[in-house]
Write a structure and sequence with these properties.
The structure is a homodimer. In chain A, about 25% of the residues lie in helices and about 25% in strands. With about 260 residues, chain A is α/β, with parallel strands linked by helices. The radius of gyration of chain A is 20 Å and the shape is globular. The model of chain A has no long low-confidence stretch (mean pLDDT about 95).
């Protein structure tokens, strides 16, 4: 059974290496990952340019490809061209930095797992809540257990797991919570500066806004829990469909 | 009242110009759009590099900025730095090519409108179902009516409208339907070729898979209707939360 692994921090990322080692005996591990960091690329795909790969060696992987594309490109290329058969599981991570709340929609890590789900393959994205993790042991163990359970039990069609792990020693993690995606988000600010030639540039920065919510991914993580959220890709605001339908009668068409 | 307009086809796009003209008397129109095509960038944001703008002139716009970033970058920069006050409405489009079904998650057009909704501003994305539209008259009229209705009635918090318009003369459009996002998607294929130096490259291509569904955005559009879908950005698979919670008891933590 093939396990496909990708990420958005790139092929050199320690989190990727830790994930590969954590599951290397659960299947034949194929790694298809970006050749450089692709954080915050969201669900971008490369359609206007060619993409290429180079072979790479990683401890614990059967084969490894470094691709000059996004995480979603990597999984699409793997499924269409590189793998000899469909994988039993797609894993993405271990990401440096949590992916909860609104951040999920900007996450390249989640997008790689989403590509798995779109193609009918059980998938999970794993992130650790630190931009400079000192070790990945707890997140690696959680990843392994996630892989075992998902392979044994499957997931509903079009569903993937978004797993966020606190940056704590394993023995200090409080427990596991299955929670909804919250509304936590960054408030962007832009540094405005002048370059060497006198031209203005902006550079995106930001800070987390306080969380005014309960029972969400962001809150569980803050409280020391591993947060697991089942996600899907139907963005419809179902509860609002009916009310909006009443508007449609006022939507005079151009001809009228 | 300010109307902020962006897109993903770039500042030179005829669809953008048609949208600006269509709403220019409904408010003070500010355009902040990518300086080149950014299709299929999904919800990417630029955090590792600076971004800049140049001033531009567009018929019907009060001010226009061409930004070397993604659609989401454009809206973030506009809201944080460029606009004198929060806009009453964010519009994105008119996109060349429909954004229905799974394509919504790859859409830069939708991501610009989503940035509006994240920031509490009513928003709509408008696309026309052709890669080479012969005219934008019907889509422009639909855009104008959408803008009027959304400004008059508002939208629930965190909600935007995804509007897809058939490429038909206005008088041939069958009507308006409020519908859910479907599962329509492209099946990717990759052209595999050898370059001038003998190295292999891949180039993403694809074709639409047949739609096996009813009452969706993709179906309504095919039937000649304007398809309007209210979308939001909570990706939680709510119906599956409870069942997955039962798993959590089997999720032995690393320490155990």
């Amino acid at each position: 059974m093939i396990i496909l692994i990708s990420n958005d921090d790139g092929i050199q990322s320690e989190g990727l290496h830790a994930l590969v080692r954590a599951v290397s005996d659960l299947g034949q591990v194929w790694v298809v990952a970006p050749d450089r960091e692709q954080s915050a690329v969201g669900h971008s795909i490369t359609i206007s340019e060619p993409i290429r790969y180079v072979d790479f060696e990683l401890d614990g992987a059967f084969r490894t490809f470094a691709v000059n594309g996004s995480p979603a490109d990597c999984v699409k290329l793997a499924l269409s061209e590189l793998l000899p058969e469909a994988p039993a599981l797609v894993l993405s991570g271990i990401n440096r930095g949590e992916n909860t709340g609104i951040s999920v929609i900007y996450s390249g890590t989640v997008s790689a797992a989403t590509e798995g789900a779109i193609n009918g393959i059980p998938a999970a994205a794993i992130s650790v809540d630190s931009f400079s993790p000192t070790n990945y042991d707890a997140a690696a163990a959680v990843s392994r257990r996630t892989a075992e359970l998902v392979m044994a039990r499957g997931l509903p069609e079009g569903t993937l797991l978004n797993v966020n792990v606190p940056e704590l020693p394993a023995e200090e993690i409080v427990g596991i919570k299955v929670v909804r995606q919250g509304r936590g988000r960054f408030k962007e600010t832009f540094l405005k500066r002048t370059d060497q030639r006198g031209r203005i540039y902006y550079w995106m920065d930001g800070h987390k806004l306080p969380l005014d919510e309960t029972d969400t991914d962001g809150i569980a993580l803050l409280q020391g829990y591993v947060a697991i959220t089942p996600i899907q890709f139907d963005l419809t605001h179902h509860a609002y469909l009916e009310e909006l339908s009443e508007w449609a009668t006022d939507f005079t068409l151009p001809r009228e």
